[in-house]
Amino acid sequence: MEKQNQGNSSGTLSSKQQLDNLFTTLKRQRDPDQASLIADQINAQFADSGSATINLLMQWADKAIQDKRNAAAMDYLDQVISLKPDYVEGWNRRATLNFAIGDYRKSMEDINQVLRIEPRHFGALAGMAAMLTERGNDALALKAWQRFLEVYPANRSAQEEADKLSEKIAGSRT
């Protein structure tokens, strides 16, 4: 059995508590550089599945993606999701791969699953916004960027994207 850190009487926080604390800090941080460091810590938390098997499959998937062996990468990611369906990064990585190979419907399905598991997953929100923008659905893309900014307000790129979409939508109404 894989052991999970559940927190204990010595003051150690569980992974979920650590993640909650990081998201709270990210939301309050106004300095973009500091916020980026916090976002990196959150991504590192997402990446660690707590399972050596899952982590190895993810490494294999990453290597297959790097080597342009998308079918093999998809197989590894399918195995990750089958073995640990609550592991958010398995779904997120598969969403990214589906997007890269042009399967937007499957990518969006995977993004929706990521957000069911972790509604604060800013990477999935950015992916959703990018896909919606690419498909010409500016109003929904703006909503996705706004959700992103609720989680990660100091991200300048997201601020710029939201501003551009707001202006575009406002301009199309006049």
Task: Describe the structure concisely for a colleague.
The chain is an all-alpha fold and 174 residues long. It is 75% helix and 0% strand. Residues 1-10 have low confidence and may be disordered.
Number of helices: 9
Topology order in helix (H) and strand (E) letters: HHHHHHHHH
Q: Identify low-pLDDT runs.
A: 1-10
CATH topology of the largest domain: Serine Threonine Protein Phosphatase 5, Tetratricopeptide repeat
Number of strands: 0
User: What CATH architecture of the largest domain do you see?
Assistant: Alpha Horseshoe
Give the count of structural domains. Answer: 2
Specify the biggest β-sheet: none
Instruction: Report the radius of gyration as a whole number of Å.
Output: 17 Å
Q: Which of globular, elongated, flat, extended, rod-shaped describes the shape? A: globular
